[in-house]
Amino acid sequence: MIRNIATGVQAFTSNAFLVDGERTVLVDTGSNFDAVGRVQAEVDDLDAVIITHTHPDHVGNLEAVKDAFDVEAFGFDTDQPGVDIAIEDGNTVKIGDHDYLALHTPGHKEDHLCFYADSPKILFAGDLIFQNGGFGRTDLEEGDRRVLIESIDSVIDTVDEELAEMHVGHGPSVTTNPYQDVELASQAARMR
User: Fold this and answer.
1) Which of 12, 58, 65, 101 has its CA 20 to 30 A from that of 25?
2) What three-state secondary structure class fits 57?
3) Is 0.85 topped by the overall pTM?
């Protein structure tokens, strides 16, 4: 089961997805709210934290979550504060009950990762792609529109039209034809 523990938070935060199952994982921790309390209200324990990228709104609660559950954080770049174990492009990571392929998808931030599980057809898109063809900002430090377009295209090459769910860094998850939103993001990023 995938739940956004940041739902209803009225502060600057990203979404934070609690995925329980064989390996209970928090995908991003969000910021400026009691993530520890919200995790504890849903599950007894946490096995790991996985970070899509290290912008403050995605990792603001990281140290509190790591301390409370005595877990390590996985992300692309262990030189980033709080990231303990590196996930490289093409690695497989267990999230809940499924194995997810890690895709290094820079353009919004250099250390950005997306995660895709083929069997349930689920994508964690971070801040690369959003609902209705939105895409991550490229005007921040480490942002690069050309690289972002390449990253979106690599997601298109990995997923297919059967994509069932796309969980994004901000806004609602997409459960109705999310592949269309991925294609729209690719087109929109080229136009702006």
Assistant:
1) 12
2) helix
3) yes
